[in-house]
Structure formats: structure tokens, C-alpha cells
Write a structure and sequence with these properties.
The chain is of the alpha/beta class. It is built from six helices and six strands, in the order βαβαβαβαβαβα. The chain has a six-stranded parallel sheet with strand order 4-3-2-1-5-6, sandwiched between helices. Strand 3, helix 3 and strand 4 form a beta-alpha-beta unit. The longest helix has 14 residues. It is globular.
Length: 193
């Protein structure tokens, strides 16, 4: 049995979905469907695309939810619809013992994913994130445990700038750090995993 976990950015651009899906299908197709188990938190972006790829190949999907309120925190719309669809299709659902989603809950979900995974697939631009429980944190933890990591970031993949960062930048003349100094505007300073 091949158990593969995913981590990745939630803020993929709409144009990124197809190339990321194709790249994930290529990675997952290396494993026979009967032996493929994919583990995902079902977050928007990379987790959702991964879950769809696992199911498209006939694999088994395991949903790992960071908290009891995880679904309630999703805005109604396409992301919530995708979450509900994947949750119904999941062969197994694990819910972390947290009432509310947050850094600790995401870090716990990552620990569960890495505790069961033989491979971590990271849909990641390899930019700095630094947020505990985020993509970079999951990749570092996997590497520290000796779990192989496969980075998936095909040509055409890109991240959207978070709405709150874009709005803040328009009001203040560009994104700024806590101390008020200008930040990199490529989006790499904002780990929206």
C-alpha cells in the first residue's frame, strides 16, 4: 500500500489548477489504484486538486480535518462544494482534537499526515512561508523525519496574492512588514498554504 500525503498552497490561481492537476496525476499514476491511499486536509487549492487526482485514479482518499469547525470556516461557494464532495468520497475521516482551526490544529494535522505517509507531495513554489503548520513547515518536518518529499510546481503554476494583503498594499503604498518596511511583492512572503 502506498500512502501519499499532500501539502500545498491554498491560493493557486485558476490558471494553475490544470497544470497542477496534470502533474499530480503523473506522480500518483506511478502507483496501482488498488495500492494508492492519498491523505489530504481537503483545503482549497492543492489539497482539493490532490484529492480529485487520487479519486480519478481509483485510489482511496483519507480526509484529515484539523478541527471540528474546519468546514464552518470555509466560505460558501466552489471551495465549500469541493470540500463537501471530497469529504463524502473519503474512505476515512480523521478529525484532530481541536474545536477551532488555527496554527496548533494545522500542525497536528501535519503530524498525522506525516505519521502515516511514505511520501509527501508538496504543491509548493518553495518560497519562504515560516508559518507553523504551513507548506514549508510540513516539508521541513517530512525531511527531518526522513520522509521523501516530491515538489510539484509545474510551468504555469502561480499563487494569487491574498486579498487582505492586496488591499493593505493599495492603502499603504505596497505590502509592508510588521515594522513598516516594504515587503517583496511576489507573494513569496505570504505562505497561504
Amino acid at each position: 500500500m502506498a500512502t501519499i500525503a499532500v501539502t500545498g498552497h491554498v491560493n493557486l490561481t485558476s490558471a494553475s489548477i490544470q497544470p497542477v492537476a496534470e502533474a499530480l496525476l503523473a506522480v500518483l499514476a506511478r502507483y496501482p489504484a488498488a495500492e494508492l491511499t492519498g491523505m489530504s486536509c481537503l483545503a482549497p487549492g492543492a489539497d482539493t486538486v490532490f484529492g480529485d487526482a487520487v479519486l480519478a485514479l481509483g485510489g482511496r482518499l483519507v480526509a484529515v480535518l484539523p478541527s471540528d469547525d474546519y468546514r464552518a470556516r470555509l466560505r460558501e461557494g466552489p471551495d465549500a462544494v469541493a470540500f463537501d464532495r471530497l469529504l463524502r468520497a473519503a474512505a476515512e475521516v480523521e478529525v484532530m482534537p481541536y474545536r477551532r482551526a488555527g496554527t496548533d490544529a494545522y500542525a497536528a494535522a501535519n503530524r498525522l499526515l506525516l505519521g502515516r505517509a511514505e511520501l509527501l507531495v508538496a504543491v509548493w513554489d518553495q518560497g519562504p512561508g515560516g508559518r507553523r503548520g504551513g507548506t514549508g513547515d510540513a516539508v521541513a518536518a517530512a525531511r527531518a523525519r526522513g520522509i521523501p518529499v516530491e515538489i510539484v510546481w509545474p510551468a504555469g503554476a502561480a499563487r494569487q496574492e491574498p486579498a487582505r494583503t492586496a488591499a493593505r498594499g493599495k492603502r499603504r503604498g505596497g505590502p509592508r512588514s510588521i515594522d513598516g518596511t516594504p515587503q517583496d511583492t511576489t507573494g513569496h512572503a505570504h505562505d497561504q498554504s
